[in-house]
Design goal:
About 4% of the residues have low confidence. α4 runs parallel beside α5. The strands form two sheets. A four-stranded antiparallel beta sheet has the order 3-6-5-4. Helices cover 55% and strands 16% of the residues. The protein has 273 residues and is α+β, with helices and mostly antiparallel strands. The protein has two domains: 111 residues, no CATH class; 97 residues, Chitinase A, domain 3 (Roll). It is elongated, with a radius of gyration of 28 Å.
Amino acid sequence: MVEVLYGMKNFLKKLFLVFVVLLAVVLIASLAGILWMRSGSVTPAKIAILKRLPVPVAVVSSVPVWANEYFGRLDKLAPYKPGNMDSGAYQEMVFSRLMEEKAMDRIISANSVEKTRPGISADPADGILQNWKAKQLALQIWYNSRAEFNPEVHAKAESILKNIQAEGDFEIQASSQSQDPASKSLYGDLGYLEAKDVLPEILSAVDSMKAGETKIVASRLGLHIIKLVGKDNLGQENGQRMHLKQIFLSESGFDYWLASEINKIKIIKLLNI
């Protein structure tokens, strides 16, 4: 029994040593890989190697960004590289945009922002752009809906809505308060609109409204005090139309806020571009 225990003890020691050696090899290899990635320029030979390795090119808020995603994006966008831009500057531009997109993912997740659907496109470059825009629009709609970012605008919208509910003077309020020149001159009347002509976030709000109802709706543009006059099915191909009136109030500060939030996110660049 003693010999068995002694043999088991020696075996475990050897196993532990093997584990330590393997761990050291992995760490050394990882360190060497990082040093290699951060040294020199991004040559075609280096790209060919990195495409085949499951290695990160950056870490955004503890989440790795893998080499195949970055270089795959470079491949898709290659035909659209400006002719007067050198390869290094273009690689840096694509890399920076990818990092910002990953940072926006973190901001969306942290604030439980409702995502918007990107446009559908067969063009790879346009598809990437649509994905970027969808994330930015989701954040902008969320930003505009938050009173803490533009308290004066939200307070004004609430005050106007209360006056309308008490006095029934939507048209008077629209002609004096709306910041949309086109509809302001028509006392806020937008006429009949088809679904394709209405911003998706406004369309979503109007779907649950009843004729005669008025509510505040946040869009990518700002705040809208929307009054649903009525709906019918006299649109193209018997599609639904909606008769809307609006009072528009613009928001401000989104670009500065987004840049500030992105700057707060820790981005570790592992690839020398």
